[in-house]
């Protein structure tokens, strides 16, 4: 390994943790989580081994889409704290070895944003062209993103006397990025937050943001939206050197390749692998590794500096939109059979442990798989302790309930009366009484201890971020056997997706006399025969991380 090849590419081997300040820790007892509360819990995140925090929107907002509806891109909502508190969080995180990125939501603003208020007031407003207007909606319309709430992406505005484009909720008018003044403003927003210490952005809704739907006269400069994404990446590079753009692009893999800038890698630095995530759930439902293996092997080639972000849950609906209707029904039947567990006809509003019937073996197997896949893992707050959802909370908010710190009042999240919280805490078997950080910190057998171990091992195995992925041949459909190889390091991972024990016969390449597989999670090792064959037993929902150790290797195992 040459230092110049890998140094500074921190995102290739990062552990990302997404949280909403509003639901993390309320430090002043007003019911809302805040930046000072987060600052107090950075040690929890550092101890877990997180290296990059992703903050969901903290900007001033009327809060009709949990902060994704912004009225001021240059501020912090007063419920959460101040810009000063923000800088304290970034600085303290840095002190603990963690970088911070934040949501960059520039596909749209809130309809309360002063730009929109001005734009709608008059055709002569200097902000009129910040948005996309039409006298009549076009015959051909894009599909709405939230079909339970909206039936068109065009909304008539009385005072404007025209229709405006909104690909999301009607209270989120789309910005017109064909307007160079809008593009300047976006660069300024990025520059502002980078100056305050951010290491980049999770870029919201990228394909929507780049689409020029409805703009007939997209100017010359905007004829090629991907040139613009390239410009943004270059701007980020100039301002911050090693900042990243982690893009939300839920598209087929071949389209994602374009958003990376192909093998030039000069557009988004990272993208979530929505395809592998969805195929993983199909695999879990079928107890058949085929779908997820196929998704991983069909990832397009990406540049040396680009990276996939892997995840099993995020803050939105667990979308299954890229499965066929039949496949989606299989996953619904397995993990969310009641209509109340589903949303938008395409996703689930549950967290992983309840979907898996609370079976700790199966939950651990899935997290083991997440951390052993090639890419950079992203956790959503509460996953480290196995939080569940609250289906009484409407829509996607069911999984955005307060973080469960202790068995105390409001799960230790806030001392305010329960009705002052942003969402009710989870009740029942996944409530704070049974699932909380405080109890799990003291328990070496807890999920928190287990996830911390996975994070530690992931960080010790740079091949997981850098390496070549291969599916290893073996006879059991219920098992995913894969290897990740980088330079002279090779990790073999086995995951049994089914509830029956199996023995997995493997044949490993490049074996020398005395090569063995050393288990990185539990005590033990397996001798590999001279022909490269080895049999590894797996319990029901069992898993192994096995380091290939050749005689004379000095790697720590
Ligand atoms: C993204 C966010 C989602 C939000 C939407 C509109 O999809 O993940 O939470 O509602 O954009 O900003």
TrEMBL record:
One of its GO terms (molecular function) is maltose alpha-D-glucosyltransferase activity. GO terms for biological process: carbohydrate metabolic process. Its EC number is 5.4.99.16. SMART domains: Aamy. SUPFAM superfamilies: (Trans)glycosidases (SSF51445), Glycosyl hydrolase domain (SSF51011). This is GH13_16 / GH13_36 / GH13 / GH13_31 / GH13_ 40 / GH13_17 / GH13_23 / GH13_29 / GH13_4 / GH13 _35 / GH13_30 / GH13_20 / GH13_2 / GH13_34 / GH13 _18 / GH13_21 / GH13_1 / GH13_19. InterPro entries: GH, GH13_cat_dom, Glyco_hydro_b, O16G_dom_2, SupH-like_C. It comes from uncultured Frankineae bacterium. Keywords: Isomerase. PANTHER family: ALPHA-AMYLASE FAMILY MEMBER, MALTOSE ALPHA-D-GLUCOSYLTRANSFERASE. Pfam families: Alpha-amylase (PF00128), SupH-like_C (PF22157). Residues 22-419 form the Glycosyl hydrolase family 13 catalytic domain. It comes from the Bacteria.
